[in-house]
């Protein structure tokens, strides 16, 4: 039984509206959802319908109605403590914030959506589509790596519900990744991704698995490849037709026609089309029209204008590079953790669960956290991290400066950990790190980041003449039935300088 089947009212109407949206037909889905809301009394049914209505308005680009729709959906979801509904609502809210060019609010919703969907116990089709929508939100906001991770999660959950992996092809994610590479100067990388999308289209046509809403995405990928002078046997113009009623589809059709004019060696016509019809910067990024202008000018032989347009496209792209976004995402996650701590004193307010010096969770809270993680059947990487040179600090400079060193180390760890990770002060100068769902590769990357951040600190200004470093070791909890004590012992035994 799927999540939707558990609702008390209008299940078939809601399923029909959902099928329309998945096929790119949000306009006819809206009156169905409005009719459900006019008669439904069950809180869960109303919350689901309001969330889906919010998503339909986003698809149609009706930005003026989003604030009221989100407020209604958010209020309804608060009354129904369901992680799927909360995750789906926040995924749509991230897309809505993107349409309104509010990056800060969009990133906040991304973090909240990811955490809510990760807490859904069922592996049904609705949850799979929730991960799909979160992947799209990540992609539109420019977090391409997180988008690929989320779409893999959608495929995994969907497979448990009997859905073919092709249903979650999501070519738009890779298309945005491709054009982002081109915006940053990696045209060869862009072409490699576009060729992969072309090959994928051929495979899906052979198996009849192509979603109608993906037509214009494939069409634009083909047209963009042709504009770069890379021949393809596929007919881009054919795929730029149809594809639904979304604002994204309309913009892709127009930009695809621009690309085909470039490929047909009509650069002046392409430039005129770019000037005549403005497109949203939210579809393929603000640099895309500038990059197309550069290709037009180059095709016309005006290399000075092409260079100027390219520089402008690159400058726009540099404002939103992934490294900056990743750091911003982690920072917002840390801020949400702090807000949750203040909001929920029943869960976090007990001083016996916090270390008074650093403000981090203490050993007792660590044990509760890991017990909860194991009870859910999850696994995690466990790291033990201690301060190299701490004894010397206390001997030479006194315990007060030793405390300041520990506070600064706590800040370093909190700053560089991934979103959703857990950091505790275990004892003395020893800290414990918990990375849910992580394996050795992710643990090694976190260890590298911690070491780099610790080395970048100005320790000489705080404790002159006393070098400070960190040593860490890693193990796993939940693997082969391993509990916290055994994992900590294994991690401690493998400690080495980071």
Question: Distance between the terminal alpha carbons, to the nearest Å?
Answer: 48 Å
User: How many β-strand stretches?
Assistant: 5
Structural class: alpha+beta
Question: What is the arithmetic mean of pLDDT?
Answer: 84
Element-level helix/strand string: HHHHHHHHHHHHHHHHHHHHEHHEEHHEHE
Low-confidence stretches: 345-351
Percent of sequence in beta strands: 5-15%
| Tally of separate helices | 25
What summary fits the major beta sheet?
5 strands, antiparallel
Radius of gyration: 26 Å
- Strand arrangement within the widest β-sheet reads 2-3-1-4-5
Q: Helicity, in percent?
A: 55-70%
Shape: globular
Q: What does this protein structure show overall?
A:
This protein has helices spanning 11-22, 26-39, 43-60, 66-78, 83-99, 103-118, 125-141, 144-160, 171-183, 187-207, 215-227, 236-239, 247-263, 267-276, 281-284, 287-300, 303-318, 322-343, 345-348, 363-375, 390-397, 399-416, 440-456, 459-462, 484-493; strands at residues 380-388, 422-427, 430-436, 469-477, 496-497. By secondary structure, it is of the alpha+beta class. Strands 2-3-1-4-5 form a five-stranded antiparallel β-sheet, with helices on both faces. A hairpin with a 2-residue loop joins strand 2 (422-427) and strand 3. The longest helix has 22 residues, at 322-343. The chain is globular. The two termini are 48 Å apart.
Give a quick rundown of the structure:
This is GGDEF domain-containing protein. The protein is of the alpha+beta class.
List the helices and strands and how they pair.
Blueprint: H1 11-22, H2 26-39, H3 43-60, H4 66-78, H5 83-99, H6 103-118, H7 125-141, H8 144-160, H9 171-183, H10 187-207, H11 215-227, H12 236-239, H13 247-263, H14 267-276, H15 281-284, H16 287-300, H17 303-318, H18 322-343, H19 345-348, H20 363-375, E1 380-388, H21 390-397, H22 399-416, E2 422-427, E3 430-436, H23 440-456, H24 459-462, E4 469-477, H25 484-493, E5 496-497
Antiparallel strand pairs: 1-3, 1-4, 2-3, 4-5
Helix pairs in contact: 1-2, 1-3, 2-3, 3-4, 3-5, 4-5, 5-6, 5-7, 6-7, 6-18, 7-8, 7-9, 9-10, 10-11, 11-13, 13-14, 13-16, 14-16, 16-17, 21-22, 22-23
